[in-house]
Amino acid sequence: MAHADEAAIFNKDEEKVDWHDKALWFVRQKRDKSAHKVKGWEELRNYASAIKANVLSNLDTYLLQFEENAQKNGVTVHWAANAEEHNKIVHGILQKHNAKKIVKSKSMLTEECHLNPYLEKHDIEVIDTDLGERIVQLAQEPPSHIVLPAIHKKKEEVDVLFQEHLGTKPCDGDPQYLTAEARKHLRSKFLKADAAITGVNFAVADTGGFVVCTNEGNADMGAHLAKVHIACMGMEKLIPQEKHLGIFLRLLARSATGQPITTYSSYFNKPEPDKEMHIVIVDNGRTEQLSREDFRASLHCIRCGACMNTCPIYRRSGGHSYKATIPGPIGSILSPGIDLKKHSSLPFASTLCGSCSDVCPVKINIHEQLYKWRQVIVKEVPQPIVKKNVLKMAGNVLANSKIYGFVGKSSRFMLKHTPRFMVYSKLNAWGKARDLPEVKGDNFDEWYKKRKKNE
Amino acid sequence: MSRESILNAVKKNKPDGLPLPEINLDFFDEDINLVETFVENLKFVGGRAVQLDNEALLDEEIKKLYPNASKIVSTTKLSQLGTIAISKEIDPHTLEDINLAIIKGELAVAENGAIWVTENDFIVRALPFITNDLILVISKNDIYLHMHQVFEAISKRDRTFGVFISGPSKTADIEQCLVVGAHGAISLTVFIV
């Protein structure tokens, strides 16, 4: 199904859409407040963008440097070309330790690789420990936002879900009570876990260390209690030097939620004695995206979610409507690179207003890439006949000033004099769920000419 | 292993070399009161700041704030309140019911209310997370303006595990309602001496 059809499903519950829209806009406003407090914010963004561009242009060198330093620190480094290899490597490590109970902190990469179902198939229990991720895991849904995985769920739904799975008491969706119950439930999982899996926010080439950011402390609870820590990272997570963490840690949380920094920014360098630390470096389509000159900057992404919070389409269509691991504007430029046909409607799920590019902490030209993907897609993926013909007609009208004037005049006449039930009939997509503007006499051209005459 | 094929693909597909920018820290320089800014940001992230003129008063103040704490781990000589001794060798699972951990923070960051602590300071990696309440003690002379200065200050260290802690653990995953006390410590008090 195309994005617009999926979005129509989300839009059936008007009240919920309004809430979703406002909740995310509120996060965007918090981001603004936080960013404006930082002296040199735009310079931070410029540096971050330039550093990431440098990383991509030397990615092989930095990967080797990172590997060498991580190995020196006693960390085992694995390489996975695709999702299947990634899952096999992780499973292999778990098998070696006979690990059956796993706790996992947030990792969009493991979502992308569908690690959970793979491990579950091999009789391994995987518990997502981020509260939002645990909620969607219990609901058997994918996350709908990369920072706020359960933003599409109302508290009453969480209440019912917890009653069913955790045996909690009905509480009218009291977040305090539900969070406290989740803490108890997940603490017992942390204490019994054989191994912990985390994502990686930044991997540092010159130290071989990596940084994981959370607000809940779940990555640390998992990693420091279990015997084995497996950190899974997309290969673009590298930064050259430790001092560059200063730039990225200043940008990440402010862009994501408006916090000045996440509660925990944990910097792992060496495993503890008698414990193991593994890093799995994953390609899964990234080297291919690297080859696309117009789209490679999408690999700068640090997964803050700011582009989602600001996007007028995302806010009103919900993350699930994108049918991709990474939804929203950034997902709409990443996903077509993975499967052009399946995700061909995503670059059209945008007004091209450019707000995503304006808030992006690493200055990805998201809206320009959306436009470029559209050009690729209309050439390579068959488009609906209606859309093709309508656009052709519109092209003819816009190219000829006489026809344009005539069409404009008749449209204004129609809009003024046609009965309401006809204007807002099914045939007029522009009249769906909104009122068209009131027609007031002249168009601009006529108004301007009259004004000139009277001067 | 796909190591070689990945590296070859990167070599083939990467763009021409782009320079690594030199960072000019002048952009970020500000003449502000570091202690005040730190305290303000610490409060913003849900932490509590207590300024002490005399570090000898530390234990007295802690007792006032946490009168019921009985299972206490202190890893700093500044406090004698510890009731449970720990060493590197202990099983971190045994710390599950700790009420309070008292740890010396190495340095603090004014711009975000964070404190940098490492394994050297808390001995057992799980300690600052698994404890119910957390106390970090910092010197007012160890507060830095921003993260760039901090990374310079910690650049020559033995790297094992370290963490920036900014406030108590929290979540807003249920309808964006902020709840303090997710999986890590449910409160953070920072003593500035």
Automatic annotation (TrEMBL), chain A:
Keyword annotations from UniProtKB, A to Z: 4Fe-4S, Electron transport, Iron, Iron-sulfur, Metal-binding, Repeat, Transport
Protein name (Swiss-Prot/TrEMBL): Lactate utilization protein B
Pfam families xref list: Fer4_8, LUD_dom, LutB_C
Gene3D superfamilies in UniProt: Alpha-helical ferredoxin, NagB/RpiA/CoA transferase-like
Location of the 4Fe-4S ferredoxin-type domain: 291-312
Keyword Plastid among record annotations: no
InterPro entries associated with the record: 4Fe4S_Fe-S-bd (IPR017896), 4Fe4S_Fe_S_CS (IPR017900), FTHF_cligase-like_sf (IPR024185), Helical_ferredxn (IPR009051), LUD_dom (IPR003741), LutB/LldF (IPR004452), LutB_C (IPR024569), NagB/RpiA_transferase-like (IPR037171)
Originating species: Mariniflexile soesokkakense
The organism's place on the tree of life at top rank: Bacteria
SUPFAM superfamilies for this protein: 4Fe-4S ferredoxins (SSF54862), NagB/RpiA/CoA transferase-like (SSF100950)
UniProtKB/TrEMBL annotation, chain B:
Pfam families with a match to the protein in the record: LUD_dom
Source domain of life: Bacteria
InterPro entries given in the database record: FTHF_cligase-like_sf, LUD_dom, NagB/RpiA_transferase-like
UniProt domain LUD: residue ranges: 95-193
Protein name: LUD domain-containing protein
Species per Swiss-Prot/TrEMBL record: Mariniflexile soesokkakense
